[in-house]
Amino acid sequence: MRTTSALSPRLLLAAALGGLLSLTLLGPAAHASDYTQPVVVSADAVDWTPQLVQVPGSAKPIAYSIAEAGDQMVVGGRFTQVENGARTVQFNRSDVFAFSATTGEVSTGFAPQLDGEVWSVLSDGTSVYIGGSFKNVNGTPRAALAKLDLATGQLDPTFQPAFKGGRISDMEMHDGLLIVSGIFTRRLVALNPTTGKQTPYISDIVAGQLPNSSAAQVFKFDISSDGQHLVAVGNFTTVDGQDRPRVFMLDLGATGSTLSSWNYEPLALSCTSTRRNAIAYVQDVDFSPDSSYFALASFGYMYQNGQRWYQLCDSVSRFETTNLNPTQPTWINYTGGDSLKSVAVTGAAIYVQGHNRWLENPYGQDFANDGALRRAGGGAVDPNGGGYARPDDVAAVPGKTLDWNPVMPQMSGGFQVLPTASGVWFVTDGVYFGGEYHRGIRFAPLP
After folding, report:
1. C-alpha angle 75/133/231, rounded to 5°?
2. d(CA 203, CA 316)
3. pLDDT by residue (tens digit) across 152-170?
4. Do residues 233 and 221 lie in contact, with contact meaning Cβ atoms separated by under 8 Å?
5. DSSP state, 351?
6. 96: closest CA among 124, 115, 118, 126?
7. Burial of residue 390 (number of CB atoms within 10 Å: 0-12, 13-18, 19+)
8. Per-residue pLDDT tens for 14-64?
9. What angle do CA 150, 156, 162 make, to 5 degrees?
10. Hey, is 340 helix, strand or coil?
């Protein structure tokens, strides 16, 4: 977890652009890459977490994002009602809500009214940034991105980003700048966290849309804990005029970012799925706590003929940060045709989540082949040997999927896994975790 003890060059840049930032806004924000955990978490989720409620006649509820907010957690998604862990008290909540990080008690003061989904939440401990596809907050126009008071849910009137529509799908604080990504003109920008005004820190042009796919976007990104690199994934073909389909890396400097030469050529190939939302098949990225590597979660169905061990379709894979021209992943663990939607690295494990049925299934194509391990809805992989790294089709190398198996069957799957100092949070559209009812929100504690 990064903290700010002095004004960095980026803060001076932001100050020149938008007024000196209050230090209360620069507190640490938790991200998956910030936490090292010594062991794998329990497969038995705690009983006190609140849950989403399926309201008759409404769309299936889903939690898209979760963030630490001091002694509270904030969840964003698509829902109109939540309930306490005991399922005895319901609360009307409009796509975002807050609750105690230790008891699950739902906040009664934080209940903003939105008219669209929340895909990303981020907090500095006193305020909450929400990103999504909404257009109004508490009756005030504020498209795609807003800043709220954590205690009252009221809109911060000084934070006025220029978005007129689109969708914000990911956010992270970096040395006093709010980095956001999504479906909008530039797809990845750095904002002043007080005013919402765009800064020139990220000037890289993310362009192009993959053929027969949905809207061009940077869907998810992660910044390494050492603050030196950003890796982004989504639906795009070039960055600064250079070919970078689906994934790119930026080098983060004192006053700006530059495009890294990192490039993995097999990313130019589509998986075998022809669905529009599967063309941009890389779904999530997370750096290791020591910043030495990052993991990618993917869907897209099967790899093309001759591309086993190279294409990332329906898999979790590892890449070394300093290897700028990889010819293969360090290792790759295939599901056998089922999607993975999110990934988080803790040091002891790499957790994945999706609507997969198996891991270690490189020869299965929508079925379990020899050696496949049943892992409904997700699983945990050994970071040092998570699967296979073979350039041929001879007998498979033994995989390194961990025994952790809570059994969490899901529909589409969850879009975020968040490690904290005391465990790992999973948010999703699923209903059960370890055979117990935990709709949408689960917390697996460290033993």
Report:
1. 75
2. 30
3. 999 999 999 999 999 999 9
4. yes
5. E
6. 118
7. middle
8. 333 333 333 233 333 434 457 999 999 999 999 999 999 999 999 999 999
9. 125
10. strand
User: Are residues 161 and 155 in contact, defined by beta-carbon separation less than 8 angstroms?
Assistant: no
Q: What pLDDT does 399 receive?
A: 58
The separation between CA 445 and the C-alpha centre of its own chain, rounded to angstroms, equals: 20
Average pLDDT over all residues of the chain: 91
Beta-carbon contacts of residue 346 (< 8 Å; ≥ 6 apart) = 32, 35, 36, 37, 289, 419, 424
Query: If phi over 0 gives left and psi between -120 and 50 gives alpha, with beta otherwise, what is residue 208?
Result: left
Tokens of 409: 């069957």
Half-sphere exposure of 71 (CA within 13 A, CB side): 6
CA–CA separation, 282 and 248 (whole Å): 11
Q: Is 49 left (phi over 0), alpha (psi -120 to 50) or beta?
A: beta
Contacts of 185 (CB under 8 A, 6+ apart): none
For 101-121, the pLDDT digits (tens) are 999 999 999 999 999 999 999
pLDDT of residue 392: 58
136 three-class SS: strand
Tokens linked to 320: 């070394």
Report pLDDT for 297: 98
Task: Please report, for residues 39, 182, 262, 273, 429, the alpha-carbon distance to residue 354 in angstroms, rounded to integers and kept in the order given.
Answer: 22, 21, 27, 16, 10
Q: Give pLDDT, residue 391.
A: 56
For residue 17, the SS3 value is: helix
Q: Rounded distance, CA 270 to CA 184, Å?
A: 24
